[in-house]
Amino acid sequence: MKKFGYTGRVYALFISILMLSCMMLSACDSNGSITMNGANVSGNGGKGCTKVGILLPDTTSSDRWESKDHPLLVQAIKAAIPDVQIDYNNAQGSSDTQFSQAQEDLARGDCILVVAPHDSVGAAPIVALAKAHNVPVIAYDRLIQSQSLNYYVSFDNVAVGQLQAQYIAAHYPQYMQGGKANTVMINGSQTDTNALLFSTGSHNVLDPLFANGSLQYASEVFTPDWNNNTALAEMEAFLTDRHNDIQIAYTANDGMANSVITALKAVKLNGKVLVTGQDATTDGIHNILTGDQGMTVYKPIAKLAQSTGDLVKVLYNGSNITTLTKNVTAGTFDGGNIPSILDTPIIVDRNNIATTVIADKFITKKDVCDGIPAGTANVC
Description:
By secondary structure, the chain is an alpha/beta fold. The protein has 2 domains: about 10-25 and about 45-150 and about 300-345, Rossmann fold, CATH 3.40.50.2300; about 155-300 and about 345-370, Response regulator (Rossmann fold), CATH 3.40.50. About 40% of the residues lie in helices and about 20% in strands. The radius of gyration is 22 Å and the shape is globular.
């Protein structure tokens, strides 16, 4: 069962990117200053910074980026720094675009960058470029694979995978057919470090069940760019290869889970196969209420954004960040130990929708119950 066979390739790419990073439309000198568009610019490590760049990865892998992260980050950073100017960009699924956006932000004088990378390795040149400006980079939600990264704000992403797998471990007997539980796994993108951490957490729980025969390992894929259409094709292929004999579909997020459910509906297996998810999207919650999806993982994005705002404020004030990170670090491929704030994810199923996503106003009850019969799960 090969989970991390691509690591060597990714690490080699990482090294190559670092070597090239100072050559990309800029020139670094030995003093760490940078010449861009003929101007010499440098920052101050974020102290006194009133211009912040926010760079998010895409609008397709999950609707959370624009509907949740974007407005909540803006709100938290405005609360952190008086009269702050925020430059916002979305990479629309392109690492090259994200690098260009970071260049533009730095050229405009942005002195703190908050980056949710499209590609955890491909974003390393952003860190190198910002370092040359003495501009700190906060990796938001997804780790950037660079030992020069300044800070990382996310959730405990191994725990996310563990929560998904623990739900499977607790509920798979209800889905067994003929004494077996054939399991397929649809992971996120190989270029997203979070997808690797989710996979690690899920395998920590599921591998012993595969080993003792409680679950039957059928197949596993990593899905480029978390693409929902690709996930649909992957699930259709699994169903064809296994002659529809699948009982468990570990699926890394709600967008791909919705695609998995579409494939299951086509063969009248929706509700008969245990499907997992993540992000607590409106579609994910609907699928849970209709019985087509078992669970999702709720990552309170308001908390994530607030942690980022708290960190930005500390940088602006020039204060000690250990009051926030509490000496927690995250490791990178090249041996970095990045000061980190890791918030706690929450499992959501039919039993606690009202006390989690609705109570937190993450999704309104009106949206949760739109099209759902009254009385469902004592929620609607």
